[in-house]
Amino acid sequence: MPTFYAQVFVTLKPSILDPQGRTVERALSHLDYANVSGVRIGKYIELTLTGERAEVETELAAIVENVLSNPIMENARWELKEAREVAGT
Amino acid sequence: MPTFYAQVFVTLKPSILDPQGRTVERALSHLDYANVSGVRIGKYIELTLTGERAEVETELAAIVENVLSNPIMENARWELKEAREVAGT
Amino acid sequence: MTAANPGLRLQAATFGLTTEEFDLAAERLGREPNALEAAIIGAMWSEHCGYKNSRPLFRAFPTTGPQVLQGPGENAGVVDIGEGWGVAFKMESHNHPSAVEPVQGAATGVGGILRDIFAMGARPFAVLDSLRFGNPDSPRTRFLLSGVVEGIAHYGNAIGVPTVGGEVTFHPSYQENPLVNVMALGLLRHEDLAKGTMGEVGNQIVYVGSKTGRDGLGGAVFSSANLSAASQADRPAVQVGDPFMEKLLLEATLEAIQAGLVAGVQDMGAAGLVSSTCEMAYRAGLGLTMNLDLVPTREDGMVPMELCLSESQERMILVPVPGREQELLDLLAKWELDVVTIGEVEAGGRYRLTWKGEVVCDLPVALLNEAPKYTREGVESEDIRAKRERDLSGVPVPGDLGAVLVDLLSHPTIASKRPIFERYDHQVMTNTVVVPGAADAAVLRLKGSRRGIAATSDCNPRFVYLDPYRGAAAAVAEAARNLACVGATPLAITDNLNFGNPHDPGVYYQLQQAVAGIADACRALNTPVTGGNVSLYNQYAEGDHKVAIHPTPTIGMVGVLPDVTVRATMHLKPGPHTLYLLGKHATTIGASQYLETVHGLEAGRVPDLDLKLEQKVIEGTLALIRAGLTSTAHDCSEGGLAVALAEMAIAGEQGLKVELMAPKGVRPDAVLFGEAHSRVVVAVPVGQEPEAQALLDELGVPFTMLGESLPGSDRVTILVPGANVQLSVNLETLKTAFETPLREILG
Amino acid sequence: MKTAVIQFPGSNCDADALHAARLTLDPDAQFVWHTETALPAGTELVFLPGGFSYGDHLRSGAIAARSPIMTAVKAHAERGGYVLGVCNGFQVLTEARLLPGALSRNRDLHFHCAPVHLRVENAQTAFTAAYQPGQIIEIPIAHGEGNYYANPDTIARLEAEGRVVFRYLDNPNGSLNDIAGIVNEQGNVLGMMPHPERAVEMLLGSEDGLGIFESLKACVVK
Ligand SMILES: Nc1ncnc2c1ncn2[C@@H]1O[C@H](COP(=O)(O)OP(=O)(O)O)[C@@H](O)[C@H]1O
Ligand SMILES: [Mg+2]
């Protein structure tokens, strides 16, 4: 059965302020890295799934929606690559 | 001066324990999402920089290395897109 | 048996062995060890596991007494607190890991000491952290301090053991090499006391907890090796802790011990699988064979050396009671931990490891556990002697002593640590009766009993630096005094000996003298040593020039309150009180924080320590508290009497007025800020003075009346009539000076 | 009032919750392990304790909210049974959608353990009847992720319906509208960040948490 590598990106909704991002931004300006703005910190999740593409996609969508993110404050998107497409793996 | 959107991906080095990933993986199996393995949880950071591409790239590299990631435990990679290249922004 | 490699001897150093040690091992073994065996010997003979430089000195320690249920030699000591209850306690350092990666270094330090406690069959119920950092204004110190505090909070808060006390001091000698000493206490019923033994021949050896990865490889060696630019290369050796996994391991282990399924248990700490299993075999006087192929691994392609020495966190070795193996395995499986039987206990005292069907290690258990012991020549450093003997009569008395008081209160070593302990959950488990910052020691109640348990950790490194014997003894005395100040009878200590490189005669002298000082003080105060930990090579190599830390023998002490409702705290209580000093006024500024902070001098003699007087002051303090004649007590330490009084006023949000009747010819700054030992300030409700004084006289406790508390007033007024000095400072000014500094450092 | 304290792996105020419940509500209060699918017969109050269920990995409360026992807890709540979620228990309730909104990282990114002052905004709920309206009480907090968020409509609704039960006088974590505790529409589910179970004995410094347990007790008597 084929193996897929999934990358999931979870970010805070734009309307919600991101204290961590703000802190990093402040730190950066103190360290005088100028011209930096809009720092937002989210999650980057990697996982491996096996199965036919169709089922894997449904399962991943469910996992992202029900577990990996909280729709009240977060947006999430994901990418799926089949193992053999992935160079060097 | 051009504006760039940077995406930074910070992941734990392969040989470093990822307690989060381990716990999430086990939880997923309990929620019977079968066939999921190799869950690793990292950071996904977005930021905006302005300047000429060359300087922006040097600055970003430094920021990622010194502030956004902890080289003792983490690997980091980044992508840079110039604002006008980015669709819908 | 994998053949020995002739070239190995030349690489002895890579295994943390000198060529002499390598030859000694080969001689005892009757052959050259192979590479794996050499690495195992190197790890077991490292200071951290083998105590080759320190153990011989420990003979001086008193380790017995009716209150001692378990002395040195196990994972932690245990004292009897009555009613069938015992308290297991132990302190351990994680200095070098914290210097490299403060968050994980400190977090795994907490995890490690907690495992030592529940390996005794005790449920951890309190943590104290003793921290030392360099120059408070340097970015590195900010980085280390905030990282270490975050790490301790992360681990302790998550696993749900309150962090109820500790100390934080700043001195340049810790700039590159901070100290992170963590003490943990656990509660057990006498009958549940567990031991780190393999039990009897034929017993199974069960591995439980996290899988083994390449974490902190060679950590035991790493943490005993000089910290230098080379430690950049050690960085992948960082270990990551998981308090969630530890919580499961804790509950599973205690459930198994209480169910009577466990014949022996020990955590995998420094030098991981090897040190735990061969210490257990040694204690049982037996041998074992383990199959390394069965070790659960997190990564592919791990080789025996990695499997043996990995310091992956949250792992234990359990030895089932014969015949109940399956019950134990089932119980552990319920907690979703990796559980594997990896070997069996044998007669004959060999430590045998197989891998891929081949014997890869076959060593005598005794050889591994009997590291060579070194007693060296200690010689006091000339320039330290010179500093101590320095004549201080020329030091001017500042004009504005009120300003000095404010300066001292705002020195980070003295200033309030609230910004730190507010990041620790100090109330989880709902036992914390006296919270951090409220008194000289933490007090916890014991549910279902009237008793209370008190704990403290203390050391004044400046004292130890200037006079290792007296300074170390003073640390024990201060710890006992701090317990008395909350109403607890001191029971026993654990120690954490943080020193520089023992090959340096000056450092070895400090170690020798400090151990002797601890031993004598423990005898005098009837607080035996139940265990401890040694951390040497605490120095930073910059080229060929080495900076050793101040010698820092941290003392952790535990005491018991017969009735937890009968206790004292340091804040001045409502209503008029008369203030007394138990003990005698200070007569010297030698070795004081004042001398260092205000005059930039780290010099002078450490004040005399009279342990009989100390005992009297402790008795007097306890008597007053238990007779209900005071509920306010605070000892004098850094900053002396003036700082102690100011702290009591700040905490009580009221003023006070005292007259310090010092002996003739004593400098006022000595009376105010000198750091004489054996002094406690108490507040007696107006009207009860006669009773209080009678009691003190009866006990033969020297004391002087100082003055009165001033409820409703906002001025702290201190007079030294002998030197017609009067200082009077507004409470708000003192409060701000006291409360701001650490907020600023921590951001 | 028959009380069940839910235990998740990583709960660490479970014993505290049980101790407080036995002291104030139900001498026979019991633990219920997260893998159970049913509550003990006759359970009237479900107490979701504080802690770091599943190590707070991913999002605090996220994994616990999806464990087997929560199905039974939801059913219990729908039947009108009482549910009290404290700290991590509050986080679990929001993740389980038994309460609106979410709790995110404290504004200053730090864990805070300290006594805080709360105003009792609604003294007519099953959890607060024993307090005076507007009464100021002192209860400890101990959390790193207590920053309450909900979208503007939800906040408006919570305020309009008097479902903000406790409000911080001095907001420690950045919660919108200084919200410290809220109830669901039916008023039988309370989530709060402060720890009332740490404030039921003078020996530990405050008894201001007793009101919550006394209120609940009164409910069954009538
Ligand atoms: N400074 C000391 N004073 C007294 N006993 C000590 C000291 N250092 C170590 N010990 C004892 O030696 C034994 C091994 O110490 P250690 O290796 O720190 O324990 P662990 O293996 O749990 O880390 C323990 O029983 C410990 O209490
Ligand atoms: Mg140990």
Account of the 3D structure:
- Chain A is of the alpha+beta class and 89 residues long.
- Helix content of chain A is 31%, strand content 38%.
- In chain A, strands 2-1-3 form a 3-stranded antiparallel sheet.
- Chain A starts with a strand and ends in a 7-residue tail after the last strand.
- With 747 residues, chain C is an alpha+beta fold.
- Chain C starts with 18 loop residues before the first helix and ends with a helix.
- Helices cover 23% and strands 25% of the residues of chain D.
- Chain D contains 5 helices and 11 strands; from the N terminus they run βαββαβαββββαβββα.
- In chain D, strands 2-1-3-4-11-10-9-6-7 form a 9-stranded mixed sheet, sandwiched between helices. Chain D has a two-stranded antiparallel sheet with strand order 5-8.
- The mean pLDDT of chain D is 96.
- Chain A binds chain B through residues 9-11, 21, 24-25, 27-28, 31, 33, 35-51, 56, 59, 62-63, 66-68, and chain B through 9-11, 21, 24-25, 27-28, 31, 33, 35-51, 56, 59, 62-63, 66-68.
- The complex binds adenosine-5'-diphosphate and magnesium ion.
